[in-house]
Amino acid sequence: MRTAGIRAPALLLLISSGLLLPGTATAAGTTGTTGTAGTTRAAATTRAAGAASAAGTAGAAGVAEASGTATRTARAATCSAGTGPYQWQLEAYLGRPQDGRQSAADCAAIAAFQRKEGVTPADGYAGLATYRTMLVAQARKNPNAAGGCPATTPARKVACVDLGRQLMWVQNGGKILFGPAAVRTGRLGQETRAGWHKVYWKHKDHFSTLYANAPMPYAQFFSGGQAFHGHPGDLFDGGGSAGCVNLAVKDAQRLWGVLAVGDSVYVWGRKPGT
What we know:
Layout: H1 8-17, H2 33-78, H3 87-93, H4 104-117, H5 128-139, E1 157-162, E2 167-172, E3 175-182, E4 195-198, E5 201-207, E6 215-223, E7 226-230, E8 245-247, H6 249-256, E9 264-268
Parallel strand pairs: 1-9, 7-8
Antiparallel strand pairs: 1-2, 2-3, 4-9, 5-6, 6-7
């Protein structure tokens, strides 16, 4: 029977009366079981595509996780720095077993800390630079937890210099305005003077008149020629200044905008090795 051109209402009437069998081709498409089969196939195709997409996503996640694990394993395997002078302290800070001896896992943990904090080289060696960076990290939450820098009444701005930890920060009451930042203070025989001082002069582009015209960017003087200032060299070279409080240049620049002439400075403790 030819059904091309039959309108939908007439088509339904023919099917209901039994004059048109399901599955007969029409201009409107195949009827009955063929249409149902087509719908079933389409649904199955959609489900298959969804399953494939989910499998692909899970596979990609698995590959990424496996890749990350492989990277961490490779780093641990290739980290071969020996035991450093601050091994025990780094093990304690990083939650490693404290035996004072380097292992591949210790090395990898120290190297990860170095990468996070920008210590170079990030080789897993527990040297002075890494230890000093650890002290800064430990102090971030509350640098004055031990109360070494006295509270003032009424509260006022104070630049606090902790010689023992070689750190400084600025506080006003219980609020930290700057830091903590690593510093390098005076060497043996030229120690940074302890006690209370005040910022009395600021000179952004200062050069030393005593020490071979050495650059002292962002200099803020507080005690008889001793000043906070930027140091373009290595703060962690194991040496010391001629009495000034050296900071990384970027930290000295930030400190410049925090302190003003007349602000208080408090220095206490003793630098290791002096």
